[in-house]
Design goal:
Shape: rod-shaped
Order of helices and strands: HHHEEEEEHEE
Strand order of the largest sheet: 1-2-3-4-5
Strand content: 15-25%
Number of helices: 4
Number of strands: 7
């Protein structure tokens, strides 16, 4: 039995070795088969890529002129848009400059208007202060100018009225003028008298029958009339007649009252 076992061991070993040899051979064949399959697959992929590359080249050759034309058109359009933007920006800049200049001019005008309004307000206050001491005819003329203002007048109208008042003031101050108006006598009755004004400072009056005579003068507060029987009515009437060109022009002496002193004032009627 032992001898049989010993004889069979080399045979078993041989069969095992043979089995391993066949196994290694089949493994090598399998690996080779796998490599062949992979190479075939890679070859197909490469051919496919080559085909796609060729097709892409053909497509590019066909589309390149169109794309170049589109690029050229887009470039021209971009250039045109840039030019339009440049012109628009230039116009916008001009508009902004003009707007800025107008704003500055408006600010200057507003400042000038404010300054003018202050000056007109000051002028009106000064005119109001002297209104009460004006000769009555001039004061009446000023009232007519003032009544034209209405409610809440514009600055231009205020200035226009103020200048009109000053113009009437200057005209009255530079000439001899004759007016007619009623006065209340010392007896309390109203009489109609003619007055001759020498500028703004003094005037003389007489009634038509020469019964009432007197003079008027501006004080610090108002214009005041004084009845005075010592004044020669004929002198006043003669002065008025010369002014109205009813008699020949000549020199006439009339009294002037200044600081409680009587001065003899020669008056000459204008020749024309």
């Amino acid at each position: 039995m032992n001898i049989y076992i010993l004889k069979t061991i080399p045979l078993v070993v041989f069969h095992i070795k043979l089995l391993f040899a066949f196994s290694a051979f089949f493994i090598t064949l399998s690996a080779a088969a796998i490599e062949i399959t992979q190479v075939d697959s890679l070859s197909k992929q490469w051919l496919n890529i080559e085909s796609q590359s060729t097709q892409l080249q053909k497509d590019w050759q066909a589309q390149a002129p169109i794309l170049k034309q589109q690029i050229s058109l887009l470039t021209a359009e971009k250039k045109q848009l840039q030019q339009m933007l440049t012109v628009d920006n230039s116009s916008q800049e001009k508009v902004e400059n003009k707007r800025s200049m107008l704003i500055k001019e408006q600010d200057v005008l507003e400042q000038q208007q404010y300054s003018l309004s202050q000056q007109v307000a000051l002028l009106n206050k000064q005119l109001i202060l002297i209104d009460d001491i004006l000769p009555p005819p001039l004061k009446a003329a000023w009232k007519n100018e003032h009544d034209a203002l209405g409610v809440d007048p514009e600055l231009s109208l205020q200035l226009q009225v103020s200048l009109a008042k000053l113009n009437k003031l200057n005209m009255f101050a530079e000439r001899i003028s004759v007016h007619e108006m009623p006065l209340v006598s010392p007896q309390g009755n109203e009489i109609l008298v003619k007055q001759v004004y020498l500028g703004l400072g003094i005037a003389w009056f007489t009634s038509a029958n020469g019964q009432y005579t007197g003079w008027g003068q501006a004080t610090n507060e108002s214009w005041v009339w004084h009845f005075d029987t010592t004044i020669d009515a004929e002198k006043i009437a003669e002065t008025i007649a010369m002014f109205e060109k009813k008699t020949q022009a000549d020199f006439v002496t009339l009294p002037m009252y200044l600081a409680n002193k009587t001065l003899a004032l020669p008056i000459s009627s204008p020749a024309n």
